[in-house]
Amino acid sequence: MLILNTALADVKLIQPKRFGDNRGWFTEVFNQNSFRDAHLPAQFVQDNQSFSTRGVLRGLHYQLGQPQGKLVRVLSGHIWDVAVDLRRNSPDFGKWAGFHLKPLTDEGEIHSLWIPEGFAHGFLVLSETAEVLYKTTNLYYPQGERSILWNDPTLNIAWPLDALNGVAPSVSPKDAQGKAFLEADLPPV
């Protein structure tokens, strides 16, 4: 299993080894010991799966009180996944990074994305449909649920909207009511 650094400290691309032959392939996408050895969380308490159609934009979500680290993997389709560092004491505070995630990369590799606690997370579906599976380090906590506007001008995230051929992203009513980054309740230091 390879642990690949990204532009944001502590956000990692996880690339497990894939073994295949003419019958198909096998991979171990999570191994508690491998994660522990890489200084990543080895304990997850909840698995979530979503199905979305082209143009659906989910996020930017995070939780206060019971923050969640997320291990994100695309089972089908293609998404552009975004992590935003909300940790005030981080040198990357307020910075974001985006990642094209598919079941297999163009090179035939599998990637999962590790997003630690203290980050906002969102994604845009670029394929006809997409199924996303993510493991979390903490349970869903409705009272702590927060959202930052996906198109916040301070964050200035370069969403690949051109891939939607002029169609506006489809955002839930709740996400449309997200806060501006400068007005959001952010995690405590």
UniProtKB/TrEMBL annotation:
<feature type="site" description="Participates in a stacking interaction with the thymidine ring of dTDP-4-oxo-6-deoxyglucose">
    <location>
        <position position="140"/>
    </location>
</feature>
<dbReference type="Pfam" id="PF00908">
    <property type="entry name" value="dTDP_sugar_isom"/>
</dbReference>
<feature type="active site" description="Proton donor">
    <location>
        <position position="134"/>
    </location>
</feature>
<dbReference type="InterPro" id="IPR000888">
    <property type="entry name" value="RmlC-like"/>
</dbReference>
<comment type="function">
    <text>Catalyzes the epimerization of the C3' and C5'positions of dTDP-6-deoxy-D-xylo-4-hexulose, forming dTDP-6-deoxy-L-lyxo-4-hexulose.</text>
</comment>
<dbReference type="InterPro" id="IPR014710">
    <property type="entry name" value="RmlC-like_jellyroll"/>
</dbReference>
<keyword id="KW-0413">Isomerase</keyword>
<feature type="active site" description="Proton acceptor">
    <location>
        <position position="61"/>
    </location>
</feature>
<comment type="pathway">
    <text>Carbohydrate biosynthesis; dTDP-L-rhamnose biosynthesis.</text>
</comment>
<dbReference type="InterPro" id="IPR011051">
    <property type="entry name" value="RmlC_Cupin_sf"/>
</dbReference>
<dbReference type="GO" id="GO:0000271">
    <property type="term" value="P:polysaccharide biosynthetic process"/>
</dbReference>
<protein>
    <recommendedName>
        <fullName>dTDP-4-dehydrorhamnose 3,5-epimerase</fullName>
        <ecNumber>5.1.3.13</ecNumber>
    </recommendedName>
</protein>
<dbReference type="GO" id="GO:0019305">
    <property type="term" value="P:dTDP-rhamnose biosynthetic process"/>
</dbReference>
<dbReference type="GO" id="GO:0005829">
    <property type="term" value="C:cytosol"/>
</dbReference>
<comment type="subunit">
    <text>Homodimer.</text>
</comment>
<dbReference type="GO" id="GO:0008830">
    <property type="term" value="F:dTDP-4-dehydrorhamnose 3,5-epimerase activity"/>
</dbReference>
<comment type="similarity">
    <text>Belongs to the dTDP-4-dehydrorhamnose 3,5-epimerase family.</text>
</comment>
